[in-house]
Design goal:
Elements: H1 4-10, H2 13-36, H3 43-59, H4 66-77, E1 79-80, E2 83-84, H5 96-109, H6 117-125, H7 143-153, H8 157-169, H9 183-191, H10 197-209, H11 219-231, H12 241-250, H13 273-278
Antiparallel strand pairs: 1-2
Organism: Aphis craccivora (Cowpea aphid)
Keywords: Ligase
InterPro entries: RNaseH-like_sf
């Protein structure tokens, strides 16, 4: 038949093994992608997640994933679900270790470089993670890192150093959000973007607002509509009372004397009126 070659390829054990390998890898990458798109994702969390995903994918070299394990079982029985498998020697399977190594190398390229200002900023932010602290911490621990952060982002140095010392003395507190003096640092860590997800969401909202039927919207109106759409409350929590009262007191009715009257020209005034009478 016309698609017999395609049918044989899809029913081969080589195709099944390749598909299972890619499914295992893509599943881990998809989970990473969803995590990086979260609005509360910080730069430090993103770096940890990417490195963790790299380790998970590397482990697939020695420990088969769920999909690949199922494919291996199907190879032994030469049947997958209801499909009878065949051995097509013309098809060469993907080199498993080489494929995983290539994926890992590409993920490593997405990490912050080992040299440069970005790496220094990331290492300075890690000073607030008590899991990375030594067993014995002095009261002036992390002063150099905090000074670099304050100089780089124009933050009050004295206030931040005071908050850091409070953070060091409070052994039971692992959250800098509970220390008022470190609020600026906390906002900074949450503000630095780790992906372009927010930017892409903004473009999607803009495309939904500025359509072909609403192409004459001014930039200011588009901006206001986008702000309400992205940051506004849900409809069930919005109280329109103040806006309705404001509109009732300031709007102009059609019967208002100050309103401009519509020019209702008669049909006889149109230059084509005589032509219409001939039709």
């Amino acid at each position: 038949s016309k698609y017999s070659g395609l049918s044989k390829r899809l029913g081969s054990i080589q195709f099944l093994l390749d598909l299972a390998l890619m499914c295992d890898v893509l599943f881990e990458i998809s989970q990473l992608s969803l995590d990086l798109q979260k609005q509360d994702m910080s730069l430090l969390q993103a770096d940890v997640l990417i490195r963790r995903t790299i380790r998970v994918i590397e482990s697939l070299k020695t420990m088969n994933g769920n999909y690949f394990s199922e494919a291996v079982k199907a190879k032994e029985k030469m049947i997958f679900k209801t499909v009878v498998l065949s051995n097509n020697e013309k098809i060469t399977c993907i080199n498993k270790n080489q494929f995983i190594t290539s994926v890992v190398n590409n993920l490593n390229m997405r990490l912050i470089p080992n040299e440069g200002e970005e790496k220094i900023i990331l290492e300075d932010f890690q000073i607030f993670d008590k899991k990375l602290w030594p067993s014995e911490v002095e009261i002036r621990f992390g002063e150099k890192e905090i000074q670099r952060i304050c100089d780089r982002f124009c933050i009050n140095k004295v206030k931040t150093l005071k908050g850091m010392r409070i953070y060091i003395d409070d052994n039971d507190n692992n959250d800098i959000t509970l220390i008022e003096e470190l609020n600026d640092i906390n906002i900074l860590i949450k503000t630095l973007p780790c992906s372009t997800a927010e930017c892409e969401r903004g473009f999607s909202v803009m495309n939904n607002i500025c359509t072909d039927l609403r192409s004459r919207l001014l930039i200011n109106n588009i901006s206001n509509s986008m702000f309400i759409n992205i940051n506004g409350p849900p409809l069930q929590r919005w109280n329109p009372r103040d806006y309705v009262e404001s509109w009732l007191t300031s709007h102009r009715d059609a019967d208002d004397n100050k309103s401009r009257k519509v020019n209702t020209s008669t049909a006889t005034e149109d230059p084509k009126y005589k032509l219409w009478q001939l039709l």
